[in-house]
Amino acid sequence: MSSVISNPAAASTADDTLKQKSRDANVISGGHLAARALKNEGVDTIFTLCGGHIIDIYDGCVDEGIRIIDVRHEQVAAHAADGYARQTGKLGVVVTTAGPGCTNAMTGVATAFRSESPILHIGGQGGMSQHMMGSLQDLPHVDMMRPITKFAAGVRSTERVADMVSMAIREAFNGAPGPAYLEIPRDVLDREVDVSKVVIPAAGRYRASTRSIGDPRDIEALADLLVDAERPAILYGQQVWTARGHEEAAALLRGLDIPGYFNGASRGLLPPDDPHHFDRTRSQAFAKADVIVIVGTPFDFRMGYGKRISKELKLVQIDMSYSTVGKNRDIDLGLVGDPGAILGAVLQAASGRIKNDKREKRREWMRELAAAEETATAKLMPLFKSDSAPINPYRVACEINEFLAEDTVYIGDGGDVVTISAQAVRPRRPGQWMDPGALGSLGVGTGFAIAAGLANPNKEVLCYYGDGAFAMTAFDMETANRFDVPYIAVVGNNSAMNQIRYGQIAKYGKERGNVGNLLGDVPFGTFAQMLGGHGEEVRDPAQIAPALRRAREAVAKTRRCAVINVWVDPAVYAPGTMAQTMYK
């Protein structure tokens, strides 16, 4: 936002100040040190909501050519920083003011923490000269942020600002990535110091390579297991994409004829029609395989804490974090290091060693799984093609999948409707699936969509929301419009927090099961129209595809977000919801 100085004397004073700053190249402020350190780390964008404690960082970012994306709520800023890290493979940065600026961002930081996404949260604080005096928005930010970050500290002198920014960033990339928090008091940011007295780490001059394969003997051991296996299977998780090891991961599946399964950001690692791509037979594979390799995903609730994997097979786990390997489930072999580097080394060690009889047996194994996949898909087709009204959410998921282009980034933000979408939506390329991850945060979609658009200006972005999730952060669609990164929003609207509602009804009966989870019937299509974009209400399943096409055309023409509000059946639930697997 710009302001007009109406007082000529004030304008003259402002001009004099700018001239003085431009003349004095021997001093630098804390905010400018922070910006320079970010620039040296390759940061090109920050996400923020303004506040008096942090404005000198903005001034520094302008000088350093760092793009400033200002949003309407700090939660969106933090989710956008997380999304930007996921899409670019670089550091995401969120900058918030003190007090509520920090607390509003905590959900986004915690989401990045559980998703192992590298972000730096820089937070403001009252001046050190006001320590424990009750300054504006004073809170113990470092203590609050410590449990949901890999590093949390305060900067106590201006001379150390750049050094500590780099320190925090190193920790964000230490082992499995994650968020770091750095609090900088206002007087530390505003103070100017002699340039000769500060330390500004040079770009790329202190980093060590993180592409470690660990112990070479473990590489050989895993290669031996895979060479001898008749029914191997591999599950790739979030870290494979985070570490940009997708090419090595795909090459291993194809080179050794192994069926691959995918969760999190690894969805899309192989195209849906690749013969090594499997997604409906994971339970069967986990029960009958002789070797299973789990790469870059923990044995958490999404994996049944490892209990769904047969104890009769050889189980291998590869992870960037030592603390994750063998957690919740005993394993036969663990490797700690970079997923791509390890998988590439294993392929090299195993290439040319598989005997013809073993190769044929594992191809029989793949044919068995492929037949089971076809059977599972056939069972779902009546739901995917349902003509019922209210609209079956499986039909919405199927229509979205058929609508996706080769370059569409798909984002899921919601409960049951998004869980159902995972049974149908198949991103066409790596990096084109985004979800909240293990924290299960609602409200990630808008920030993720903004980040995806900024990181991939030539790609289409589609976010599928539940109506509860949409209402949490939708006002930042205006931010997407303002920064020319419009996207298509599809809302699966059942006027309820339906994933929770099912469990309540099952436990307490319908009368009490509807308490605290029913929402109003909101025509969200009009929301996009209010912001100058295209909006539609869809109640007929036959109109889903035409509405999606109109949305695509409208976004391209108007450069404004489009919202397709699809009224879905509140009586249809995902299988996991009905089994309450998330709580088991």
Give a description of the structure:
- This protein is an alpha/beta fold and 584 residues long.
- The chain has three domains: 27-197, Thiamin diphosphate (ThDP)-binding fold, Pyr/PP domains (Rossmann fold), CATH 3.40.50.970; 216-367, Rossmann fold (3-Layer(aba) Sandwich); 385-583, Rossmann fold.
- Strands 3-2-4-5-7-6 form a six-stranded parallel sheet, sandwiched between helices. Strands 15-14-16-17-19-18 form a six-stranded parallel sheet, sandwiched between helices.
- The model is unreliable at 1-14 and 18-23 (pLDDT under 50).
How do the strands and helices of this protein lay out in sequence?
Layout: H1 8-23, E1 27-29, H2 30-40, E2 45-48, H3 55-64, E3 67-70, H4 74-88, E4 92-96, H5 100-115, E5 119-125, H6 141-145, E6 151-154, H7 161-172, E7 180-185, H8 186-190, E8 192-194, H9 216-228, E9 232-236, H10 238-242, H11 246-256, E10 260-262, H12 282-288, E11 291-295, E12 314-319, E13 333-336, H13 339-350, H14 356-384, H15 393-403, E14 408-413, H16 416-421, E15 433-434, H17 445-455, E16 460-466, H18 467-473, H19 477-482, E17 488-493, H20 498-508, H21 510-513, H22 525-530, E18 534-538, H23 544-558, E19 562-567, H24 575-579
Helix pairs in contact: 2-3, 2-7, 4-5, 4-17, 9-13, 11-13, 15-23
